[in-house]
């Protein structure tokens, strides 16, 4: 087994595994495993909008599972609903079979 094959195996068996790091989330009405970084969910007041805060989350998905459910990596600028909250995708990348998706929403 080469390094790439081992990394793909590690994605499934360790990182995107509900018994290890991942949990089940609802994305656009579909149940899917993901690792959502709650540590980056820090509301910051927006200087130009009094009473409104910006909330960001970083979600990691198994690229194969996400492709089957949604047809590919989410494009920047689209709306994506995660666990009932509609976010905007501000950044997405494919890192060795894991989609890293930065989500953002303004809240009151």
| Overall average residue pLDDT | 85
Radius of gyration, in angstroms, nearest whole number: 15 Å
Proportion of residues in β-strands: over 45%
Number of DSSP helices?
2
Q: What's this, in brief?
A:
The protein is α+β, with helices and mostly antiparallel strands. The chain has a single domain, classed as Thrombin, subunit H (Beta Barrel), CATH 2.40.10. The protein is built from 2 helices and 7 strands, in the order αββββαβββ.
Write the layout of secondary structure elements.
Layout: H1 3-15, E1 23-27, E2 30-37, E3 44-45, E4 53-62, H2 63-70, E5 79-82, E6 85-95, E7 98-107
Antiparallel strand pairs: 1-2, 2-4, 3-4, 4-7, 5-6, 6-7
Describe this protein with a few key phrases:
108 residues; 7 strands; single chain; alpha+beta; 2 helices
Protein model, in words:
- The protein is α+β, with helices and mostly antiparallel strands.
- The protein has a single domain (3-107), classed as Thrombin, subunit H.
- It is 19% helix and 46% strand.
- It has helices at 3-15, 63-70; strands at residues 23-27, 30-37, 44-45, 53-62, 79-82, 85-95, 98-107.
- Strands 1, 2, 3, 4, 5, 6 and 7 form a 7-stranded antiparallel β-sheet that branches.
- The longest helix has 13 residues, at 3-15.
- The termini are far apart.
- The model has no long low-confidence stretch (mean pLDDT 85).
């Amino acid at each position: 087994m080469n390094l790439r094959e081992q990394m793909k195996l590690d994605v499934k068996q360790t990182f995107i595994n509900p018994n290890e790091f991942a949990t089940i989330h609802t994305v656009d009405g579909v149940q899917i495993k993901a690792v959502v970084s709650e540590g980056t969910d820090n509301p910051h007041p927006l200087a130009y909008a009094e009473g409104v805060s910006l909330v960001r989350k970083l979600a990691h998905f198994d690229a194969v599972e996400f492709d089957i459910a949604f047809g590919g990596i989410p494009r920047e600028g689209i709306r994506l609903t995660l666990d009932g909250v509609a976010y905007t995708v501000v950044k997405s990348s494919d890192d060795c079979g894991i989609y890293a998706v930065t989500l953002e929403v303004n809240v009151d």
